[in-house]
Every structure is written in structure tokens, then in C-alpha cells.
Amino acid sequence: MGSNMTLGKRITIGFSILVFITVVLGIIGVVNMRNAASGAEKLSNVYVPGVDVASNIFKTANEIRYDMRAFVLNDDETVLANVKKNFAELKKYLSQAEELGKKNNLKELLQEEKAASKSLDEYQTWTEQSEKTLAKKKILDLAMVDNAAIFIKNTMSYVDSQQEQLKQDLEDKADKTKLWDRYEKIASINNVISIATEARIAGQRAQVKHDVSLLETAVGKFESIYKNIAQIRATTVRPVNLEQLKNIEASAKAYESALKGFISTMQESSNQGKNLVRISIDVLNSAEAVQDLGLKNVKDISNESNSSLSVASWIMIVGLIVALIISAIVAFLIIRSIVKVVTDAVKSLSEGTTQVVSASEQISSASVSLAEGASSQASSVEEVSATIEEATASNNQNADNSREANILAQHSNDAAKVGNHRVIELMSAMEQITASSQKIAKIIKTIDEIAFQTNLLALNAAVEAARAGEHGLGFAVVAEEVKNLAERSAGAAKEITGIIEASIDQVKAGTEVANKTKESFEDILNGIKKTSDLIGEIAISAKEQAEGMNQIATAMGSVDQITQQNASASEETAAAAEELNAQALSMLDNVSELALLAGFDMGKENRASSNIKRISTPSITPKRLSMSTTSKKPISKPSSTTSRRTNEDVFPLEESDLKEF
Question: Residues of the signal sequence (predicted)?
Fold first, then answer.
């Protein structure tokens, strides 16, 4: 630190460094805490709600997936209500995600939400198509059931007819060929029934297993049915039986057509199921992506906050260590510089105080010697002063007489000057009266002009009132009054103007008389001045002689005064030396205490100061001069001031002298 720095500046710099380090650490801590708080706020207000929404999206999408699987596998219409409800919930959650993304500028969330919304729209479209396909499937299933029942009814009617005919043939004891033919027809129709039953069972199994190949196998069996019907028709001759066979064939074809339609519907449903599975996976993946994104954001912001707090902790720890080190260094430097300065100051004060004590002893001795010499000199000066006083008295008397004559002449001259000055003042006052009268005349003239203008305005107002007719009667009366007042004002102004002009003429006459009086006073003044000058020259000569003698007397009085002052000053110097000695010893004690505070050994200085004795000043009373009072101008005697002096009088110190401490 600079040697010119004061103690206050050094301490201020030290504390300023500590405060600066503390403020820097505080700012770093506050910034990191604010970052952590911002991350926590963002986590609470953005990412946690995002994870919540993503979790709801994933949960709802999963429920839709399970419901759609039940719908696709079991054609269960009851789950469609839950699916539609979950669709609405999923749209609501996606809207919340979109709103959250737009509000907080989460681009990735908006992208995932857009992809999920697109997949959801496609999911809903396929769901609606599947619902329509299910309705169509139910219609076709009902058609299959109805056509199968019709087909069975027709075949059973044909069987019943053939059995009745067989019974009749047996009763009629028909030949074996006819009976065999009847038997083959019954066997063929039973075969048709068996094939149709297999097809019906295959259709039911196909619906249960969702296996279209079983239905296709069932449809392939209808060729055998048609062949058997054709064989039966070839041996049938009765119209009733032919009609029955025709109905059987028609119902078989209707049943086959229903099966084929059901096959097409199942294929369409299977395709839709595959798309639904695919779309459900897409929706679920999008929902999972949204959820993963939210969890990732939460994890990232948590890691960021953790890292920020960790960095802040390390910065605070390192900062505190650095602050402690710097504080120790600064404290060491400040203490060392302060102790060094104080120690040097204590040494200087100690040496100076010792020298002051010694000097006070020398001053006291010199003051005593000076006082004795001044007392002896005062006796000699008293004798010379008495002789000079007598010579001065006569010269002063002559000078006084001349001075009185000169004073009388001066009084006469002054009286003449005063009279002349009064005449001049009278003339000046009369000139001012003349000027004021002229100004008043101008003002009266202005008033006259204003009255004239007012009269004109009143005339104009009367004319306007006359034009106004009855409405202007009141205004005409007022205008007439104003006109009268204007005429009266004009008359008064003219009278005042005449009076003022007469006054101006009288003042001019008085001014001429005053000028003549002034000339007379000037003549008297010149005569008095010449007389005064002659008396003044006589008075000056007498005064110069008196002043010469007075100067000699004054010189001797000054010598006497200086002699007495020297004696008094010597006495005061001795007293001051005693006080200085006491102050020096007191200061030496204070310096010792300061040295102990600074850790400086004052043993030697204290031992030296212990040998210094307090000095005492002998009472010296110089002989005072007894001067005669016959002189007009007595010599003043010095006043002896022996009051006790303060510390500042004895040992004055300015604030700048102690600035270093």
C-alpha cells in the first residue's frame, strides 16, 4: 500500500475488498439460486404438467387399444361407447398438450402432439369404418341364419314328402326299383342337408376363430349340394317335388351368397382390424413419445438444476477459501503498514517530546536573563523621557494656539460653503419642481386626450343606441352620462394645466433670484478662503515643530513601551516554557501508551524522560516607568498578560500534521 495513504483509507480499502468478495459470492449464489428456482418453476409449471398430460395420453391410448382389441376379436359393440369416450378424452389431453407446447414454445412436444393427433384422426376413421362393417356383418350373419333356416325348411319339406311317398310305395308294394329310387332321393337329400350343416358349422367356426378359410371351405361344399340336387331333379317327375327342389336350390344359392358376402365382410373386417392394430400402435407410440419427451425434459431440467446447485456450492466453497486467504493477506498487509507507521510516529514523537523538554529548559533560562536586562534598560529610559517632556510642553502650547486660529478660519469657510451648497440644492429642487410640473402637464394633456376619446366613444355609443331603438334607450342614457363625465374631465384638465403653467413661471423667477444669491456667496467664499490659507500656513509651521518634539517623545515612549513589553514577554515566555515542559512530559506519557499499543519498546525513552525534571520560573517583576501626564499625548503602557495558556497556544498542531495517524 502507498505510504501516502491515511489509516482510514487503508482500513476502508481492506474492508472494501472483503465486501467486494462477499458481494461477488452473494451475486454468484443468488444467480445460481435464481437459475435453480427458474428450473424448478419451469419443472413445476411446464414439464411436470407435460408429463401429467403425456401420462394421461398414454393411459387413454392404451385403454383405446385394449377396447379396440376386444371389439375386433369379439365384435363387441358395447366397448365402442368406451372407445368413443376415450377418443374424446384423448383429444382433450392432446389439446392440453398443444396448448402447453404453444404457451411454453415446446417445439418437440408440438411435433409429437401433431403426429399423435394425425394418428388419432386416422384411428377414428378406421374405427368408424369398422363400426359400419360390423353392422354389415350382423346383417349378413342374420341373412345367413335366415337363409340356412329356409334351406333346412325346404330340404326337410322335401324329405317329409319323400318319406310319405316311400310309405305309400311300401303300402302299394311297389317294385324294388322304385323303392330304390326313392331311397336314393332320400339319401341324396340327406347328403345335401349334411353338406349344408357342415357349411353352417364351418361358418360359425369361422366367426368364432375369425378364420375366413373355413368359410371359403364351406362355400366350396355348395357345388356338391348343387350336384346332388341336379341328380335328384333328373329322377323326379312330380311337379311338387320339382318345385321343392327348386326352392331348395334357391335357398342354397341365397345361403351361399350370404356366406360369400360374409366372407367379403370378414376380409374387410380383418383388413380393418390390421389397420386398427397398426394405427393403435402408432397412437400408442406417439403417446409414449410424448410421455418420454416429458420425462426427458423433467430429467434434463432436474440434472441442470442439480448441476447448477453443485457448481454454485463449489463456487461458494472455493470463493470462501479465496476470501479467507485474501482477507488474511489484506489484514496482514494493513496491520503491518499501520504498525510500521504508528511505530515510526511513536519514535518521532518520543524524540520530539524529549527535544521539546530540553528546549523548554533553555527557553526558560534565556527568558530570565532577558527579563533582568529589560528591567535595567527601563530605568535609563525613564530619565531621558522626563527631559524631553519639558521641551515638548512649550512647543505644544504654540501649536495649539495656531491650530485654534486655523480652526476658526476653517469654520467660517465651511459655513460659507454650506450656504453656497444650500443655494445649489435650492436651485436643484426648483429645477426638479419645474421638471415634475412639466411631467404633470403632459399627464394632464394625456387625461384631456383620453376625455376627448371618451367623448367620441360616448357619441358613437349614442348613435348606436339610437339605431337600436327602444332596446338601446338604457345604453343611450349611460352613453350620455359618460359623455358628461368626459366633458367635465376635459374641463378640469384644462384648469389644472393653467395652474401648472403659472407655477412653472413662478419657479423660473425663483431660480433667477437663487442664481444671483449663489454668485454673492461665491464672492464671500473666495475671501474667506484666502484668509484661511494664510492662517493655515502659520498653523502648519507650528504644528511641524510640535510634531518634531512629539515624535522624539513618542520614540522614547516606544522605547520605554518596548522595554516593558520585553520584560513582560520574558515573564510570559518563562511561564510558557514551564507549561511546555509539563505538556511535553504529558505527551511523553501518552506516547508511551501508544507505543505499548503498537508493540514498540519505549524502555529507553521512558528512562531518559524520567531524568527530566519539571522546571519552575522565578518571579521577575521589572521596574515600571512613572511617566508625567503633562504631555498632550501620553505614552501608553503595555498591559502585562500573565494568564495561563492553553495546550493549543503552547503546542499548536494542525489536523494535517496528524493525518498520517
Answer: none
